[in-house]
Write a structure and sequence with these properties.
With 264 residues, the chain is an alpha/beta fold. It has one domain: Rossmann fold (3-Layer(aba) Sandwich). Helix content is 41%, strand content 16%. Strands 3-2-1-4-5-6-7 form a 7-stranded parallel beta sheet, sandwiched between helices. α1 packs across α7, α3 packs parallel to α4 and α4 runs parallel beside α5. It starts with 8 loop residues before the first strand and ends in a 17-residue tail after the last strand. The structure holds nicotinamide-adenine-dinucleotide. Nicotinamide-adenine-dinucleotide binds next to α1 and β5.
């Protein structure tokens, strides 16, 4: 047990199960002495999240569908009542209708576009509005992105557009909140087999492609993303804001297929 997060309290949003990136970050924070509250979407996930939270000594587990402003208000009112203030928030939430996570981006209808933007981009701003009010200088807000925000990835489609907007919102909020000493960053994770990822067309192919073509010649682990999350939430990254930090075995620097990689 380390002490990097000793005395810090924060909220982790987006745990669905033990394979969630949110859980990897929460465990890393708890292992360094941080106190973590959780939100979940819907009662079914609540039943999964509660025992995970208890396993790291947390009993603060709240429902929060981020499409609902009143639910976000209630979450932060509950945290204010319990803790008074907040040191960090992790937003590890994204959603798009999987019908449109295959085929052409061009065919995305308006309602699917707006829902993807609402849940995957705006919700981070909505959460940050409430969280920042409870934060002192040193506060840290973190979201999760993917390379599909910067480059065209097959099937990522409307999620890529939403993640591009999310990354832009990280930069704007970093500027807005810098004066208050609050940092806003994103981790752009390489592909990991989670519940959300299973909605993306040909995800196994994407995993293989990254494994063969990334400089480290492998995919990243949940623990590695958890470790980067810990860095972003702790004072170790005190000088870092507005950043999109790639944790992807270096894949984002690659311009062409590795000529020695096997066929997939
Ligand atoms: P996950 O399925 O474990 O987590 C996604 C979470 O989003 C779930 O807990 C789900 O309940 C939550 N969510 C969806 N709609 C919601 C709503 N309306 N209200 C509240 N919560 C809602 O999958 P994950 O891969 O851990 O995803 C976490 C984040 O990481 C997402 O933003 C995802 O886009 C991002 N990401 C994932 C990968 C990957 O390959 N798995 C790579 C890069 C970025």
């Amino acid at each position: 047990q380390g002490t990097l997060m000793k005395g810090k309290k924060g909220l982790v949003m987006g745990v669905a199960n033990e394979r969630s990136i949110a859980w990897a970050i929460a465990s890393a924070v708890a292992a360094q002495g941080g106190e973590v509250a959780f939100t979940y979407q819907g009662e079914a996930l609540g039943k999964r999240v509660t025992p995970l939270a208890q396993s790291i000594g947390s009993n603060l587990v709240l429902p929060c569908d981020v499409s609902d402003d009143a639910a976000i208000d209630e979450t932060f009112a509950a945290l204010e009542k319990e803790w008074g203030e907040l040191d960090f928030v992790v937003h590890a939430i994204g959603w798009a209708d999987k019908q449109y996570l295959r085929g052409r981006y061009l065919d995305t209808p308006r309602d699917a576009f707006l829902t993807a933007m609402n849940i995957s981009c705006y919700s981070f701003s909505a959460v940050a509005q409430r969280a920042a009010r409870l934060m002192k200088p040193g506060g840290s807000l973190l979201t999760l992105s993917y390379l599909g925000a910067e480059r065209v990835m097959p099937h990522y489609n409307v999620m890529g557009v939403a993640k591009a907007a999310l990354e832009a919102s990280v930069r704007y909020m970093a500027a807005d909140l810098g004066h208050d000493g609050i940092r806003v960053n994103a981790i752009s994770a390489g592909p990991i087999k989670t519940l959300a990822a299973s909605g993306i067309g040909d995800f196994r192919y994407i995993l293989k492609w990254n494994q063969y073509n990334a400089p480290l010649e492998r995919n990243v682990s949940l623990e590695e993303v958890g470790g980067a999350g810990l860095y972003m939430l702790s004072d170790l990254s005190g000088g870092v804001t507005g950043e999109v930090h790639h944790v992807d075995s270096g894949y984002h620097v690659v311009g062409m297929k590795n000529p020695t990689a096997p066929d997939i």
